[in-house]
Amino acid sequence: MTNDFFDLIARLAKNEVDFVIVGGFAGVVHGCTYVTQDIDICCDFSVENLLKLQKAVCDLNPVHRMAANRNKLDLTSENCGSYKNLYLDTDIGQLDCLGSISGVGDYEQVKSKSILIDAEGINLRVLNIDALLESKKAMNRPRDKQAILQLKAAKKSKGK
């Protein structure tokens, strides 16, 4: 992980956001060598958890990356229920917060298919290699096809 991306993930963990690392960074954890431009997480989209997420990144000037006017992130108890995904730009990197993962399911299903790792003294949940393979197959984008090859090779080298 780059220092900025690790800082972003560490902020979430320190603020007790309930999340699982998925996507490119999960692939790196499992041995892939590809480069990713953002952090993808699957998280609990409850009001309490989203407000923790906002608190974790509030000093990083988070804005909605996919919105034409790039509104500042401004979550409230009232509007949290309207989100299924959040695509954010922050001062230290992009953060994609997803409520479900193709090929795996909703947050609870994703969490049940995650492993716990220690990264510089911080416990983080990461999607397990089998579930990550399923998600990449379901997405079926060109970059996912390359990731599948690398994940299968990593899995074989670990004897799984």
Outline the secondary-structure elements.
Elements: H1 3-14, E1 19-22, H2 23-29, E2 38-43, H3 47-57, E3 63-64, E4 85-90, E5 93-98, E6 100-101, E7 105-106, H4 107-112, E8 114-119, E9 122-127, H5 129-139, H6 142-157
Parallel strand pairs: 2-5
Antiparallel strand pairs: 1-2, 3-4, 4-5, 6-7, 8-9
Short description:
The chain is α+β, with helices and mostly antiparallel strands and 160 residues long. The protein contains six helices and nine strands. The strands form three sheets. A five-stranded mixed sheet has the order 1-2-5-4-3.
Structure description:
The structure is a single chain. The chain is α+β, with helices and mostly antiparallel strands and 160 residues long. The chain has one domain (3-153): 2-Layer Sandwich (Beta Polymerase, domain 2). Helices cover 39% and strands 25% of the residues. It contains 6 helices and 9 strands; from the N terminus they run αβαβαβββββαββαα. Strands 1-2-5-4-3 form a 5-stranded mixed beta sheet. The chain has a two-stranded antiparallel sheet with strand order 6-7. Strands 8-9 form a two-stranded antiparallel sheet. A hairpin with a 2-residue loop joins strand 8 and strand 9 (122-127). 34% of the residues are buried. The mean pLDDT is 93.
Keywords:
single chain, 160 residues, alpha+beta, globular
User: Helix count, per DSSP?
Assistant: 6
End-to-end CA span: 24 Å
Question: Biggest β-sheet: count, sense, barrel?
Answer: 5 strands, mixed
Domain module tally: 1
CATH fold title:
Beta Polymerase, domain 2
Regions with pLDDT < 50 over 5+ consecutive residues? none
Structural class by SSE content: alpha+beta
Rounded average pLDDT: 93
Spatial strand arrangement across the major sheet? 1-2-5-4-3
